[in-house]
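Researcher: Good morning. I'm working through a list of sequences from a screen, and I'd like to move beyond sequence-only analysis. For each chain I'm collecting a predicted structure so we can compare shapes side by side. This is the next one on the list. No need for commentary yet; just the structure.
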Amino acid sequence: YVGQRLLARFPDAGLVSVLPGNLSREPALPLPGGFTVGETVYYIGPTKSLIGVEGEVIGPGTHSDIFGKGVDVAFKNSELFSCLCEHLSREPPLPGGFKAGETVYYA
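Model: Good morning. Structure tokens for this chain:
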């Protein structure tokens, strides 16, 4: 790639060597669910081994089943996952899967 890369300065990353095809003159489209790159999220979906695990949003969902409906998340002590928005929370999950504000009954 000698002679084919540009040095671009990014506010959060400093100087980065990038291919021109990875740059745009237009800002990126908003992420599904109103999520932002770098935002901390918690998994609340059906994969039991990930429930409650903290992660960081790294971009739009890239898996074909998730594209346009979710985001890619780097979870701590795990790998990258494409997650549907409804499987993520901005707040850590409560014990028992309860949600703040949910109506409950003492049994």
